[in-house]
Amino acid sequence: MPEKGKAEIWTVPVTVPVRKESKQVSAKDGKNLEYVEPRFKPDDLLYFLDVNVWHKRCVFLKAAVTAGLGWQLVTDDQDKEPDADYKKIMELLNQPNGNYSDTLTSLMIRFMIDYHALGNAWLEVPRRRTGEVAEIYHIPGKTMRRKSDFSGYKQVRTFKTQDFTVFGEPDENGMNEVLHLYNYDPGDDYYGVPDWLPAIASMALDRTAVEYQTYLYDNQLMATFAITIEGGELSRKARNQLTKFLQNNFTKIKNAGKAMVIAIDDPNVKIKIDKLDIDMKSDMTAKAREINRDEIVAAHGVPPRMVGIMAAGQLGGGGEISGQLKTFKETVVLPDQQRLENMLNRTILASFGEHKWKIKFTELDISDQIADAEYYEKMLNSGVLDADEVREELGKQPRENPEQMVKMLEKVARVLDGY
Questions:
Q1: Which residues are bridge partners to 120 per DSSP?
Q2: Which of 120, 268, 288, 350 is the most exposed place for a label (fewest CB within 10 A)?
Q3: Predicted confidence (pLDDT) per residue in 331-390, tens digit
Q4: What is the CA radius of gyration of the chain?
Q5: Which residue intervals of 140-261 are DSSP H helices?
Q6: pLDDT tens-place string over residues 16-71
Q7: Tell me: the pLDDT tens digits for 74-85?
Q8: Alpha-carbon distance 136 to 94, whole Å?
Q9: Does residue 272 contact residue 230 with C-beta atoms inside 8 Å?
Q10: What are the domain boundaries of the chain?
Q11: CA distance 103 to 332
Q12: Cβ pair 140, 129 in contact under 8 A
């Protein structure tokens, strides 16, 4: 109790809210344009998707194993029974928009193809008046540009444009929101870049090799040569006629293997044909293309066997296959799936309010492949099974083997003799 005649003072702590924000210099401070172009033009990146088979296979493979193996709604709650929230979310995910051919899986595969081909991918997500996401659409990545102040995006198709706002920042004018997933690029504040970018030189070199071979087949099936005339002279008209004759009759695929006979009446005139170009061995080109192929596949982080590459000296070894699959799953597929799940759970599913559900994409199952590879390798090496017995267990036809056929017929004969 305070003494009589003295005032008592109480100190009440007051929490003063402090606005939390980054103090970094923003990229938008140095941009005067409304929209920013990516560091690498999307059409330039997509060109390599059209001309390199290994690059395209890797892009589509990674998209398929990330988002194309299936999905489900899961919960950490002990009660796993579907509730009203589950049914509302599933209604959207089972039919993302009015296009009957668009499933969530097909949308996500296209989304991830853009992500792996361009380093950027977008989804359009219109909302209901209640705030819940009503529909989901894929936006082709090559058409999207980002606002310099990070407040939105513009879709550009030839002379037509459409503005969008960032998800979570509804626009009073009714603009739809978009989700943007990008692969971080230290050299660009606005866009991502694909992982395969360092292999772009190998793709260009591989394309050059293909065009070189095409040129040889189309125009140079007979090596480049020089015609030297000694003891005489051809008129300009005769030279032009000879040049035209050679071009029409000794180039192009249809003229392959033709012979040329030159008859000279004057015994003092000699004609020499000298080869000029360096003899480019076909195996040199094949080896260069093989090196380019391996670098492209390595840049994607895809095991070579998953895209049909069987390297010499690596035809066996189940342990090697299992190691490559495990590394691919843990360093490429799972991180991409987690990134995709986090984006959808924190945005689209979160728009349905408080609930216990989250989306989970089906993981690439490598356990059976690893176990089978190791098991059959041991069975073959120990002699317990031969190659045809392994093929039979895998549901494949045996190889054409006369000895095996004889043994089978002898076995059938013994069975028949018992009747």
A1: 182
A2: 268
A3: 999 999 999 999 999 999 999 999 999 999 999 988 765 667 777 778 778 877 777 776
A4: 34
A5: 200-219, 236-249
A6: 565 666 666 566 654 668 899 999 999 999 999 999 999 999 999 999 999 999 99
A7: 999 988 899 999
A8: 11
A9: yes
A10: 23-195+301-366, 225-276
A11: 24
A12: no
